[in-house]
Amino acid sequence: MTKEKRSVFWFRRDLRLEDNHGLCRALAKGSNVRPIFIFDTTILSKLPSTYDRRVDYIHQALQLLQQKLNVFGTDIRVYIGSPLDIFKDLNREGAIGSIFCNGDYEPDAIRRDQLIENWAAGEGIDFVSCKDQVIFEKSEVMKKDGTPYTVFTPYSRVWKSKLSPQALHPFEIEYGGFEKLDFKELPALDAIGFQKTDIQFVESEVEASAIKDYDKSRDFPGMDTTTRLGVALRFGTISIRRCVLLASENNETWLNELIWREFFMQILFHFPESAKLCFKPAYEAIAWRNNEGEFEAWCNGETGYPLVDAGMRELNETGFMHNRVRMVVASFLTKHLLIDWRWGEAYFAGKLLDYDASANVGNWQWAAGCGCDAAPYFRIFNPEEQLRKFDKDLIYVKRWNPDFESKAIHKIVEHAFARDRALSTYKIGLGK
Fold first, then answer.
1. For the Photolyase/cryptochrome alpha/beta domain, which residue ranges apply (predicted)?
2. What is the pLDDT of residues 225-239, one digit of tens each?
3. CB within 8 A of 273, min separation 6: which ones?
């Protein structure tokens, strides 16, 4: 009698059981579904430090997943290594019939998935990738001529026109189809090569009350009223369908933020070269100063500008930074200091708990004026004016930069001088 081939569900950016499209598809196909997660050493080896809150966050999320799966008589198997090698080993241990996962749209992830899919095809294994982390993916929101939108406003208009109740309907899971697996301890963080951090994973949820005044309060970092769901959306511990449904019913400003997320994803999907190159090629001619000492001062929150320094210290201490402050510090680096946006993007990539390549690249290029839908190059935030407007009582600054008064007398550069220098440098670079 031939043993039933197992299906594998590969968790990636979807660390939840509830409303999980790929998992739903896998379980609907039949029984004997093995849930797995792979700590991909190709990715982990590139991280700048073994103290990484994101790895710890994933590890804790997997522990919760394991507890939930144990209730249904199964477990999650967690592996460390190259995904292709792991799948080859799994197939040798017991024949795989299908691999299910949810799609990822970043260039490296696309290459990884293509490698696995090609191998699977050679072994007679189905590779099924589902849409889960977005409402509309790849080429579902396009211009009438079939080309991708590169400006947010018309993209968002079409995105909203296509939204339907069906697109937000949650995927119901049939829990009886899992492979029967005994409990097996997850690999410890140190076995993966990382340290325990101060991050405390909490299962994410969002209620209407949390976003009803989002449009009024989101720009004031001292109020601390943002949802902080960036990391949950990044790793899929909350459903995007749940979030969009709530946003569409309660706050259009928050809905627009979720649409920005998908806009940047489809930009990176259609223009993968923009991960490293200016979306607008002419901006490659900008003569960045790239002063390493000034960059280090910016990284350490020692520029003498209270809001900039508070933001960088919050980032360094917590892995988070308020969105309004992100715009201010990014503008300061690229315009006041004339340091290449790629330096800032890489620094944020190493620090942000909610780091997402498409949003990080898109927002840094927006700040530098060289991206799609970019702010004009001559828009230069005045960090002192931003402080007066959005943190006039210094609540945020005092929280993260308590010694700001002594530092402010030694500004790294004067605003008026820096603004003129930036305008001149951009004009020369762009041949204006």
1. 5-135
2. 888 899 999 999 999
3. none
